[in-house]
Amino acid sequence: MRTILIVGNWKMNKTASEATVFMRDLLARVPAQPANLELVVAPPFTALESVRLVLGASSPIQLGAQDLFWEDHGAYTGEVSAPMLKGLGCRYVIVGHSERRTLFGERGDLIQKKIRAALKHGLRPILCIGETLAQRDNGTTDHVLTQQVHDGLSGLATEALATITIAYEPVWAIGTGKSATVEQAIAAHRTIRQVLATVASPAVADCTRILYGGSVTPQNIESLLASDQIDGALIGGACLQVESFATIATVASVARSTGV
Ligand code: PGA
What we know:
This protein has helices at 16-29, 48-55, 82-87, 98-103, 108-120, 133-137, 141-153, 158-161, 182-199, 202-207, 221-225, 242-253, and strands at 4-9, 37-42, 61-65, 92-95, 124-129, 165-168, 210-213, 232-235. By secondary structure, the protein is an alpha/beta fold. The longest helix has 18 residues, at 182-199. Residues 9, 169, 174-175, 213-216, 234-238 line the site of 2-phosphoglycolic acid (PGA).
């Protein structure tokens, strides 16, 4: 069974000192040893160190970054590399978030370079993909998802592909309060899993976690995780308050224990 993964993407929120206070509070509230659940927080680069210090060595929460650059070092003003993130204790890194694609012009070839850099240094990439509302309305959702998976992952070695997570995030659902329905998410996840079977292998497709992201809340997380097609969530707004993120973690920690 795939372990549920819940990732909190803080985006450009919280200073280093706010992060320290938040993490102390959060650690006191999340399930201590979640059996079938991995919890990750992805603060801004500037708060990674403070979060790491609060988490310590044996925390139930792991550290992730929101982006990375593909070179290891050099004259790339403003960028942060995979070895730098590793050095701060990151295990995961989000790649190709729709805000990076739309606001910073990231394309498939750049996204694949970032994925390769993450893998080279033992970071686990979370590749974000998703259609816009116009693409959904004109019936091209499956085509867009297929293209984005190919752009991000084609040509990678099968062993490398086995460490990747995909986050399906319909652009129209991000930060809008309008989550995809469970049926829409399941359909998209099935499409993605089929594409993975061809890009990687049926075995890799079967073990790859596909998260849903886009207006996930303490109210809708249970119904999303009730489907065995939805292996967790990438959470924006609802991860910024201790109460809502801790509630989501608690719901997720018991989500599959009844064998749904
Ligand atoms: P949201 O953001 O939960 O605020 O919709 C999700 C995301 O951008 O990953």
